[in-house]
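Cont'd.
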Amino acid sequence: MMDRREFLGATGVLTGVLAAGSPLALLGPGRAWALDLKALTSAEGAALLAAARTVAPHDKLDDAPYALVVQSLDGNATREAATLALLRQGIPTLGAGFATAAESERVAALQAIDTTPFFKSVRATTLMTLYASPLVYSYFGYEGEAFSKGGYLLRGFNDLRWLPEVPLADSGPIFGAKSS
Amino acid sequence: MASISHDDTNAVVIIGSGAGGGTLAHELTRRGIRVVLLEAGARQSLASFSQVPGEAFAQLTWLEPRTQSGSTTVVEDYPTLPSWTAKTVGGTTVHWTGMALRASPWEVSARTTYGTVDGASLIDWPVDYKELLHYYQLAEKRMMVTRRNGNPGLPASNHFKVFHYGAKRLGYKQVHTGYMAINSRPADGRGMCIQQGFCVQGCKTGAKWSTLYTEIPRAEITGNLELRAECRAVHIEHGADGRVNAVVYRDPAGNEQRQKARVVCVACNAVETSRLLLLSESARFPNGLANSSDQVGRHFCHHTGCFVWGVFDKPIEFWRGATLAGLVLDETRHDPKRGFAGGYHLEMAALDLPSIAIAGFPQTLWGRELGFVMEQYRSMAGIYVNGEDLPRSTNRITLNPDVKDQFGLPVANIHVDDHPNNAAMRRHGQQQSKALFEAAGAIKVLMSRQTPATHNMCAARMSREPKDGVLNAHGQAHDVANLFVSDGSAMSTPSSANPTLTIVALALRQADFIARQMSMRAI
């Protein structure tokens, strides 16, 4: 009998569970997540997820935002035959067992191919997808869109106290604030 | 807004609605001249600007293909993005960071000041600095530039405190929150800066000057402007007399349209301006329009530019506040003892989360070092080194017949060989920035290589002699009296100043000239 994923035309799946207490858990009803792949196999997806973690390692970050990198690569591979070929030919160069290898081995495997178009594509997609995701804003301290909160004019744009204040001649007054 | 007939032979057609085209449209329409303003991009508004970094980038950026070649590291580092320009009503004035700097007097006589430099095609500007200064002052009034005309400076952000402290410890004398076309108080019908950060996403209070919500609506109110957004000019036509008389464009549905014209002004940002002139070939102008001298696309300049980042052990949160509101002016001087001609500005700079990883760091950075630096995102400070680059006749925008756009037209190829002067200046700027951050207590400093150009200049430059450039001192084509270029292409040399103020000043000046010439019926 055909299961749901096969019916939807999925070629693979990535699954994971958010760590207890992960801020990402607030975004969905449960901690388990699953991502269907449209062009890549589950094994290929797992290898790319490990590659993304090695390119941009953040130990306390869940797998879920890294899975978005795989989703992006899989999407490109679905639309562009050239990308699928690049990934299909590149993934085996990572070596068997890459997805579960120790970090030092994964680093060595990537160093050996770090001038190839495959590596550059994985690196670029990792940076573009991982760091663009609102899922990771709070991890890096970024506070996101601020206009709806009135910007930072009255919310700490100048609250740094570990250096001296700047003379007025080199800065400017805050409009509407009482001069001190 | 006016409705102007496609057969109106008295209309001025301006192509591009940014700093040059948008300003020119306002200046001509308020003098009673009918203007059709063609813009390839869509019209956004303060309400529609996205504040999601990647989404904002996609909303405002020219993402159609361009190719590149040459020895610049940009070819290797940014294979699909040789230049970061806008495609939206208001052009780059929507995504710019508001730094409104004047070129300096010695920079507009670069050939005289710097002398002969091997491998460089320097010329002096054909414009007298005193006259340029007059228009700079008009532009600064128009744009409500801070620290000019009694407009207060922007207040110091956390990020600026770090920048200022390091700069002063390094001995710099001229350090302040910049000459910014960003309201430090409500003015001119626009809001004030609320320090929301990432000005490149579009300013949702309108505190930052943009033609989108200043010059263009004011031009519309005159009843003499028809803005046609999402319309792509593909060819400029001329008559038997050799004067231009129509612009062929694709409307939003992709259908070909033809707008007749008395005067045509090209203001598409330098890459697309050169491309459009080259695409507008004819039996009479087989090498492209205004190109009898073979100068169109040559001498392309983009500024010597790179990022330097200081990582600190205490929080800064540099996304809080106007992105570029910090400036060191001490290095703008021409001082050959430093080992290069010309000078540079040090400009405080912040990047959003994906951009800093994509474009802020060396393209070879990955693994634990990248992970460490990114985890210090809240404790980082940044500088953009913005320096004068030297024109080279072989640094050139050409057509690439091997790559076509959605209309089947060849895309622009940008060829840039880095001049040794640029490399020496970049190294100096990087070392000074590193010293600045270390003086402020940085625990680590990182540097990018040359970044993709956002300041595209000089590729259809003004020159005294027709053999040295494309335009005369008024931005009027040497070859075609009723054809003008009204963007950064027209600059004779790039100076070390971010180009927007100069583009606006030249547009104000050009509007006076065009209006006079039209009333005299010279064009």
